[in-house]
From TrEMBL:
InterPro entries: MethylDNA_cys_MeTrfase_AS, MethylDNA_cys_MeTrfase_DNA-bd, MethylDNA_cys_MeTrfase_DNAb, WH-like_DNA-bd_sf
Glycoprotein as UniProt keyword: no
GO molecular function, one term: methylated-DNA-[protein]-cysteine S-methyltransferase activity
Family as reported in the entry's similarity comment: Belongs to the MGMT family.
Name this protein carries in UniProt: methylated-DNA--[protein]-cysteine S-methyltransferase
Pfam families linked to this entry: DNA_binding_1
Length: 88
């Protein structure tokens, strides 16, 4: 049984869709942008559960210190995608 995304997850996914190819944002920046500045960990959790991999480019969200962070398809895949887009 598939569980529908929560309202918070939908906000995260809708915002992350707007991050342009070749650009990145931190989990904290996404949290701030959706009006939940202290919810950066929840942003990471939402992206880890992203069922819309092709539509929501969660690989464009990285840690505030510039490191890659996690990715549900593995960090090597995340780096590959970011390199292909010219973001790193």
């Amino acid at each position: 049984m598939e569980i529908a995304p929560t309202l918070f997850q939908k906000r995260v996914y809708n915002f992350v869709r707007t991050i342009p190819k070749g650009k990145t944002m931190s989990y904290a920046q996404v949290a701030e942008a959706i009006g939940r500045p202290r919810a950066y960990r929840a942003v990471g959790n939402a992206l880890n559960r992203n069922p819309y991999i092709l539509e929501v480019p969660c690989h464009r969200v990285i840690r505030s210190d510039g490191s890659i962070g996690g990715f549900n398809s593995g960090t090597a895949r995340k780096k590959t995608l970011l390199r292909a887009e010219g973001a790193i």
